[in-house]
């Protein structure tokens, strides 16, 4: 189930005074099963890019291939594609409209042609997988907290059994605890279903913790496409794009400059902790005498 973007450009309002070249010659290959982060400054083109992945917008030039087939061929079934490449928009909770949670999540699969019974089975599975409790299935979506609403919205797309799930800032507007819970659940989902996850995020800490591949978009182009570790080693270039590496990367660079033999490219707090302890131990540091070793 690979997606390929070939020489994609996209221009809003072409030929007018408001013309904006949102994407410029994008080439991208997304094989099965990866957990990918997409990061970039506001207005860099992330949303425009992901809408190409499920043929919601048609490129100005270039082609989008799904399993090798051009999705903009006249006879291509783009409706089917959209159920296989599920897209959860920013603030999806604004799109809940049924009277109860279960019916809301059933809407997508029923729209795809499933019976209510089949749809309910998929909906329940999806809701439980995103950590939504069964006792709340009959509640009105309007009674729910922000985090619960987001779960319902994600389950609504998941219930259609997508092969690829794209989430545009799924944690926007949540507090840190709600944010971690949702991201942990998305990560679990990736493991349990083995589907491709594409996570658009503004948080370097979040992508560093979860994704295996990080795509950095800058002014409509792909600036980096690599492991988070490799991308963050270019932190000075990221800064020039209005981005930054995770704070821990800066701390590790500072420690290295002070003479501690740490790996400056650690990207998560856990990785950094282990590496600092190792370096302190190797240096025979008195700091470890308090029994603080792992
Ligand atoms: N419907 C639209 N009409 C005209 N211009 C648009 C439209 N949507 C986006 N743009 C412009 O295209 C460029 C890319 O926008 P896009 O929304 O893809 O960026 P983004 O990286 O997703 O931003 P954000 O992080 O704020 O969501 C920006 O200059 C934006 O102003």
TrEMBL record:
Domain ABC transporter: start-end pairs: 3-244
Pfam families per UniProt: ABC_tran
Record-listed E.C. numbers: 7.-.-.-
InterPro entries (UniProt xref): AAA+_ATPase, ABC_transporter-like_ATP-bd, ABC_transporter-like_CS, ABC_transpr_CbiO/EcfA_su, ECF_ABC_transporter_ATP-bd, EcfA2, P-loop_NTPase
Keyword terms: ATP-binding, Cell membrane, Hydrolase, Membrane, Nucleotide-binding, Translocase, Transport
Annotated localization: Cell membrane
GO MF annotations in UniProt: ATP binding; hydrolase activity
Topology of the protein relative to the lipid bilayer: Peripheral membrane protein
Family stated for the protein in its record: Belongs to the ABC transporter superfamily. Energy-coupling factor EcfA family.
Quaternary structure note: Forms a stable energy-coupling factor (ECF) transporter complex composed of 2 membrane-embedded substrate-binding proteins (S component), 2 ATP-binding proteins (A component) and 2 transmembrane proteins (T component).
Primary role: ATP-binding (A) component of a common energy-coupling factor (ECF) ABC-transporter complex.
Protein name: Energy-coupling factor transporter ATP-binding protein EcfA2
Gene source species: Blautia caecimuris
Lineage: Bacteria, Bacillati, Bacillota, Clostridia, Lachnospirales
């Amino acid at each position: 189930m690979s997606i390929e973007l070939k020489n994609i450009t996209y221009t809003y309002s072409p030929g007018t005074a408001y013309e904006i070249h949102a994407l410029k010659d994008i080439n991208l290959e997304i094989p099965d099963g990866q957990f990918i982060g997409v990061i970039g400054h506001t207005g860099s083109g992330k949303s425009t890019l992901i809408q190409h992945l499920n043929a919601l917008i048609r490129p100005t030039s270039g082609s989008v291939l799904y399993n090798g087939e051009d999705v903009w061929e006249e006879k291509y079934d783009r409706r089917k594609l959209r159920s296989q490449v599920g897209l959860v928009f920013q603030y999806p909770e604004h799109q809940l409209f049924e009277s109860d949670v279960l019916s809301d999540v059933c809407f997508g699969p029923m729209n795809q042609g499933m019976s209510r019974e089949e749809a309910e089975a998929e909906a329940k599975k999806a809701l439980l997988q995103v950590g939504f409790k069964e006792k709340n299935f009959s509640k009105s979506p309007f009674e729910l907290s922000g985090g619960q609403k987001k779960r319902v919205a994600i389950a609504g797309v998941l219930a259609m059994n997508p092969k690829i799930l794209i989430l545009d800032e799924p944690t926007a507007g949540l507090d840190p605890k709600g944010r971690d819970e949702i991201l942990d659940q998305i990560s679990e989902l990736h493991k349990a279903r083995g589907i491709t996850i594409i996570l658009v995020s503004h948080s370097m800490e979040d992508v560093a913790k979860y994704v295996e591949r990080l795509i950095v978009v800058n002014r409509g182009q792909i600036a980096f496409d690599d492991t988070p570790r490799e991308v963050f080693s270019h932190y000075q270039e990221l800064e020039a794009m209005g981005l930054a590496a995770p704070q821990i990367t800066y701390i590790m660079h500072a420690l290295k400059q002070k003479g501690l033999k740490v790996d400056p490219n650690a990207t998560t707090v856990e990785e950094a902790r282990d590496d600092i302890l190792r370096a302190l131990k190797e240096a025979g540091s008195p700091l470890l005498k308090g029994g603080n070793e792992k």
